[in-house]
Every structure is written in structure tokens, then in C-alpha cells.
């Protein structure tokens, strides 16, 4: 029970990686606030946690909206008494080049992927600091470290996540708050199927592309969750500002 008596917030908690991590947090003893923008979606994951004997609340919120974030933090504190762990994981992707991307699409990708993390940290850091510290894990991407094709706003946003994580770690380390990013390669979730649809490809052939990496397969959400549990827990007590890559060896 590596997260016994901890309270956690997971954004994008109804999606592939978010759901797996919410369940993993609960299995390690954490009380979990499952947050997602899709109406009612977080409730299903909270129900799964409760059915397994854990403690969870479900909150519908858009991470790019400051009032929503303030409500998420306040509701979590009211339900659990504090916040020890945050997994800033909500994210969206647009598979377009700079020429193809509208200014509105750019703003939306940055609003969710970057501003969402800033807003959560703005409102949760004082809560954590008052309680002696905590651990924040932000979802970057392999493409935030090395770039990728036909995803200009996404690659730029994930690069921002990686460096914002370092800046947060510098600012809030003295308050006992560790901040790290987890950077997945291709993971078997709805996002990959959405990408295939945006690119007009068959999901099957799109997913098969991951077979060329050293481990010869894409990742499963639970394999990202396992890394996030470690970063969230005291086992990683001397790790902050790091960019942990979990990608089957895709970044040579
Ligand atoms: P997913 O699409 O299954 O899950 C994303 C979740 O975020 C969804 O439940 C969605 O409703 C939620 N969400 C979207 N916008 C939101 C908003 N404004 N406020 C609150 N929730 C919102 O995708 P997946 O793969 O689980 O993605 C999780 C994170 O992992 C994302 O940040 C993504 O960029 C990142 N990632 C995923 C990779 C993959 O291959 N699946 C690779 C590298 C990074």
C-alpha cells in the first residue's frame, strides 16, 4: 500500500491512462478524485474503485476552465481533507501541420494540455504546501521530447509540459512538493484510435506501427500507471523535475 492514507486527483480520469492510474492509485490505498470533462464518465471509474472496496469521488470538469479547477480542488479537500497527489493527465491531440492548424485549434490544445496543468498547480500547490508537501505528476509525451509529424500544436504543448514541470519543481521543491513528468510512447487508448480517425487510417494498421520499437509492441495503460504510482509515492522521494520516459524504447 504505497499510497495509504493519501488523497489524489486524476484528470482525464475516465480515459485510458487516467482510468488505469485511478484504479492503481486506489489499489495502493489512495482516496481518488476522478476528474473528466465527459459528462458522467468519471462516475463509472469511481464506481469501479468503490466496487473494489476503495474510496473515490467523481467530478465533471474542464481543466482549461479556472472555475472548474477551483471547484475540483475545493471538492476534493472537502471530501478527503487535503490533496497529496495530483496526476495532471487530461490531454487532447490534433494531427495537423502548422499550415493546417487553425488558431482556435492551437488555443484549445494549449488550453487543455498546458493551461490545464498551470491552473491545477496554481490552485493545488497552496493546499499541498499547507500540508507539508505532495507529489505532482504531469503527462508529457515522447513527442514532447523529440517531436513528431503532423501534430504541431500537440508536440509544442507537450514540450511545454516537460519544461513547465522542471520550473514547477524548482519553485516548489522548498515547500516539499515534487513535480515530475511521465512521457509515454504509443499506448493502447482511445487517443490512438482518435488519431487514426483524424489521419484517415484504419485503427489496426495505425496501431501496428508501434511494432518497430525494441519491445515490439505498444504500451498498455497499466504500464504507464505503474510508473505514475512510483512517481506519486514516497519511493521516488529524491526525484523531482525529471522526465520519465515509458515508451518501449521508442526514443533511441
Ligand atoms: P484518452 O483519450 O483515452 O484519455 C484522455 C482523457 O482526457 C479523456 O477521458 C478525455 O475525456 C479527458 N479530457 C480531454 N479534455 C479534457 C478537459 N478539457 N478536461 C478534463 N478532461 C479532459 O487518451 P490517453 O491516451 O489516456 O491520454 C492521457 C494522456 O496521455 C494525454 O495527456 C495524452 O496526451 C498522453 N499521451 C498518450 C499517449 C498515447 O499513445 N495514448 C502517448 C503519449 C502521451
Please tell me what the overall shape is: globular
**What summary fits the major beta sheet?**
7 strands, parallel
Order of strands, widest sheet: 3-2-1-4-5-6-7
Q: Look at the helices and sheets and give the structural class.
A: alpha/beta
Radius of gyration: 17 Å
Strand content: 15-25%
Q: What is the residue-averaged pLDDT?
A: 96
User: What compounds are bound to the protein?
Assistant: 1,4-dihydronicotinamide adenine dinucleotide
Whole-Å distance between the termini?
A: 34 Å
Task: Point out poorly predicted stretches.
Answer: none
Helix content class: 40-55%
Number of extended strands: 7
Description of the molecule:
This is Short-chain dehydrogenase. Residues 6-195 form the Ketoreductase domain. GO terms for molecular function: oxidoreductase activity. Keywords: Oxidoreductase. InterPro entries: KR_dom (IPR057326), NAD(P)-bd_dom_sf (IPR036291), Sc_DH/Rdtase_CS (IPR020904), SDR_fam (IPR002347). By secondary structure, this protein is α/β, with parallel strands linked by helices. Helices cover 47% and strands 15% of the residues. The protein has nine helices and seven strands; from the N terminus they run βαβαβαβαβααβαααβ. It is globular. It starts with 6 loop residues before the first strand and ends in a 6-residue tail after the last strand. The mean pLDDT is 96. 1,4-dihydronicotinamide adenine dinucleotide binds at residues 11-12, 14-18, 36-38, 62-64, 89-92, 112, 139, 141, 184, 186-187, 189-192.
Amino acid at each position: 500500500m504505497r499510497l495509504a492514507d493519501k488523497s489524489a486527483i486524476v484528470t482525464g480520469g475516465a480515459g485510458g491512462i487516467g482510468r488505469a492510474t485511478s484504479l492503481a492509485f486506489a489499489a495502493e490505498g489512495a482516496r481518488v478524485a476522478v476528474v473528466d470533462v465527459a459528462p458522467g464518465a468519471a462516475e463509472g471509474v469511481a464506481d469501479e474503485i468503490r466496487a473494489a472496496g476503495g474510496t473515490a469521488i467523481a467530478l465533471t470538469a474542464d481543466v482549461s476552465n479556472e472555475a472548474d479547477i477551483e471547484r475540483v480542488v475545493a471538492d476534493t479537500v472537502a471530501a478527503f481533507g487535503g490533496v497529496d497527489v495530483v496526476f495532471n493527465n487530461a490531454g487532447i491531440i490534433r494531427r495537423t501541420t502548422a499550415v493546417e492548424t487553425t488558431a482556435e485549434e492551437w488555443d484549445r490544445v494549449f488550453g487543455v494540455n498546458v493551461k490545464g496543468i498551470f491552473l491545477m498547480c496554481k490552485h493545488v500547490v497552496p493546499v499541498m504546501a499547507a500540508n507539508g508537501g505532495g507529489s505532482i505528476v504531469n503527462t508529457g509525451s515522447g513527442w514532447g521530447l523529440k517531436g513528431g509529424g503532423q501534430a504541431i500544436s500537440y508536440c509544442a504543448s507537450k514540450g511545454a509540459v516537460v519544461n513547465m514541470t522542471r520550473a514547477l519543481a524548482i519553485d516548489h521543491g522548498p515547500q516539499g512538493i515534487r513535480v515530475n513528468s511521465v512521457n509515454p510512447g504509443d499506448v493502447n487508448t482511445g487517443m490512438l484510435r482518435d488519431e487514426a480517425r483524424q489521419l484517415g487510417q484504419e485503427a489496426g494498421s495505425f496501431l501496428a506501427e508501434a511494432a518497430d520499437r525494441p519491445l515490439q509492441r505498444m504500451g498498455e495503460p497499466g504500464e504507464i500507471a505503474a510508473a505514475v504510482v512510483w512517481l506519486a509515492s514516497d519511493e521516488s522521494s529524491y526525484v523531482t523535475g525529471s522526465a520519465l520516459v515509458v515508451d518501449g524504447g521508442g526514443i533511441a
